[in-house]
Design goal:
alpha/beta; binds pyridoxal-5'-phosphate
Length: 218
């Protein structure tokens, strides 16, 4: 299990960047991992996890939450508006809010339930047509709209293009968050979380480096 190593690397990256120890939260991305691998990480004390699919989360997490009190599960995959109701019941935070219809639905449910998951706005920093996220030029406007809806907005999230140096994308996201007065930065995965921490990440989403490679779903 790579959990200890990843924790050590995060601590080293915090120190190298002159950041306070513990200022970066590790989200262990457990999507499509065998139960025994996730349970080993739970037994080791990890309590913050990321999942990509509503259905899979609904199947796996109620039992784990009972066995391992204090778990927090964050939605980091694309969220269909028609699954928003289920999502607010399953997740403590949603990192992939990227359009008005979804934000409005979440806001309506927050009103009626009196509580809401924390929200990150996903930004398509590489302007990739196949990728979710608000385009960089629309971020300020969208953030203002989400604030008007009274959702608990925590920060911004991005997934840089596969084949590019992620550093400029992390820098761009940090700049957009700063000018919008947002403190949360969800950025960095197994291959680049140290670079993300150097650029101010507050939440890194690390899957395969902790759990091992994912076998694709049948
Ligand atoms: C799967 C996933 C991760 C984790 O990816 P690894 O490369 O396994 O660390 C992080 N963020 C998002 C949005 C993901 O979908």
């Amino acid at each position: 299990m790579g959990l200890d190593e990843i924790r050590a690397r995060i601590a080293a990256a915090e120190a190298a960047a002159g950041r306070a120890s513990g200022s970066v939260k590790l989200i262990a991305v457990s999507k499509i991992q065998p139960a025994e691998r996730v349970e080993a990480v739970l037994e080791a004390g990890q309590r913050l996890f990321g999942e990509n699919y509503v259905q899979e989360t609904a199947a796996k997490w109620p039992a784990w939450r009972e066995r391992f009190p204090g778990c927090e599960v964050h939605m980091i995959g694309p969220l269909q508006t028609n699954k928003a109701k289920q999502a607010v019941e399953l997740f403590e935070a949603i990192h992939t809010v990227d359009r008005p219809s979804l934000a409005e639905k979440l806001a309506r449910m927050a009103q009626s339930r009196g509580v809401s998951p924390g929200v990150f706005v996903q930004v398509n920093t590489g302007e990739e047509p196949q990728k979710a996220g608000v385009l960089p030029g629309m971020v300020d406007e969208f953030v203002a709209a989400v604030r008007m809806m009274d959702l608990p907005l925590l920060g911004l999230m991005c997934i840089p293009p596969d084949a590019e140096d992620p550093a400029p994308h992390f820098a761009m996201l940090a700049q957009m968050a700063a000018r919008n007065g947002l403190s949360g930065l969800s950025m960095g995965m197994s291959g680049d979380f140290e670079t993300a921490i150097a650029h101010g990440a507050t939440h890194v989403r690390v899957g395969s480096a902790i759990f091992g490679a994912r076998t694709p779903r049948a």
